[in-house]
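Data deposition worksheet. Section B asks for the primary sequence of the deposited chain exactly as it was used as input, without tags or linkers unless they were present during the calculation. Section C holds the resulting structure in token form. Section D is free text for depositor observations; keep each observation to a single sentence. Incomplete worksheets are returned to the depositor.
Section A, Depositor: J.P.
Section B:
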Amino acid sequence: MKAHANAVAAITIRQTAWPSSGFLQGGIESRLHWLFRCAVFLEFTGHGACGIHTKSAWLPYFHVFAIPDAMAWRLMPLIGSIDIALGVMALFRPCRALLVYMVVWGGFTALLRPAAGEGAWEFIERSYNYGVPLAFLLLHAAGRPAGWFAPLQLPAPLCAGSQRTLVWTLRIIVALMLVGHGGFGAFMGKANLLVFYRAAGLSHLGLPLEMLRAGIGFLEIGLGVLAVITNRPAFFGFICLWKLASESLYLFAGMPVACWEVVERGGSYLAPLALLCALAPAFGPPPEPAPAAPACALPNPVGGP
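Section C:
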């Protein structure tokens, strides 16, 4: 019985360990669990911090509902505080109900952009805002024993069908965010991209920044198409670095709340990293097998000792 108790305790520790243990020692599902957990934390805390600092760029989204500017400025910190609280909850105690809310809220805020006249490319590019919590929810399928408000533990190994669904969900998220961001430069001609590329020193190449903006846009659209068809994990590692570098241009350009703008886009870095893990099962050390419980003694048919 003592050996059995030790085995149960060891399993419980592995299920509730902090990322340094759960991520490195678990299987692919464990790594994805922690990547999604960190991604939604970054997305919501970054978005929330922008709300607390307040952003004039958010005013058109309130105008969609005829909310005047004076009230919008007061609502921004409240919305931001709620986002931060939910992001922290997703990191320390995620549950299915919280993830459903994050999918809905992420999709709603992304739809506000075209509703405010910013174009459909904005909604497409923000696929990670609603897609990453959806992928997190798929990792913990609704048919599992835990309820909607029960804290999510490390998931059990997925069946082949669930694995395919999750991988395709991640592919679509990555493809949409690349195609959408590419559309900013190739078709929208988004002005802030010129500020970023000038801050990155691309103006020294001797080519018009508008031409570079369009060229980079078409390149990203091509990368988005490749994200749907390639099975090379290294490709998605490159996409992770590409997004991290391109979004870090907020810092070099000295944009308002630049640090939180980079944090808010955490899902765009971790979604391709999750695909890298999913397509490279040998990534990291294999999980350690749990100790086997001792065999139960059979009752004596005679009833003797």
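Section D:
The chain has one domain: 24-143+157-279.
DSSP finds 15 helices and no strands in the chain.
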